[in-house]
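Subject: Sanity check before I submit

Could someone independently write out the structure tokens for this chain? I want to compare against mine line by line before I put it in a report. The sequence has 280 residues.
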Amino acid sequence: MEKIYFTKMHGLGNDFILIDCINQSLSKPEKFAIQYCDRRFGIGADQLLLLYSSERADFKMRIFNADGSEVEMCGNGIRCFAKYIWDRGLSNKDILEVETLAGIIKPKKIGELVQVDMGKPEFTPSKIPVDADGDRAFDILLEVSGWLAKVNCVSMGNPHAVIFLEEDPKNFAVAKYGPIIETHPIFPKRTNVEFAFVKNSSEIVMRVWERGAGETLACGTGACATAVASMVKGLTNRKVTVHLLGGDLLIEWAENGHVYMTGPAEEVFEGTVKVPQRDL
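---
Independent answer below. Compare away.
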């Protein structure tokens, strides 16, 4: 048995197991994620974050869902990732460059909060990806268990299907429709699903069904995708507050085309788990 040191963190209740892989080895992260993200038999988390050194940036982040699948990007996760680095003095830069499968992402220290340059949103269907014609996959009608959903597809380094509702989603059947849309054949790599209500021109209320994790209390990339979709459709201004079950995120789609997300990150506790050598 080998000890693996970890830190439990969360961003608006979207929680993570973060492991420093610069100083210890974890060669089977998929298996580790499945076992230890489990809330009854493990540590409990939506996702596993792994910290590595990088030849292209200051650090490298890998992200694994609770089902063991690796994903491109996580907005709440990268804020926690940055806080971990700053709190432990691993870098004295106020703006970090982090290598991810979605490219180089740049979190910035803003007082007690973390602002992340999420890059430019992608609307081209083949790059999201979604099986749709045209230059933009908006207002696509999907029949989902007897309900006709109108989805708007955006990539923020990972795929999102945003659905605007006519009322607050607090009583919406997210657990019923989320997994069906996530695995719909139109999405070759599955998708995250956002159920949103535009409260006014500067506020959106949102719940999210995350690909590979189920409903979570918050999703940073999902908040960005939802905000951008609302802006494209002329429903909101270019700067909005997105209200999630776990708290609020400030999203701005700036004139340079980049989306900026600002929100908190919190450390919960540190610990160790004993892992059999065969699982390392």
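---
OP: Matches mine. For the report I'm noting this point. Residues 75-87 form the longest helix (13 residues).
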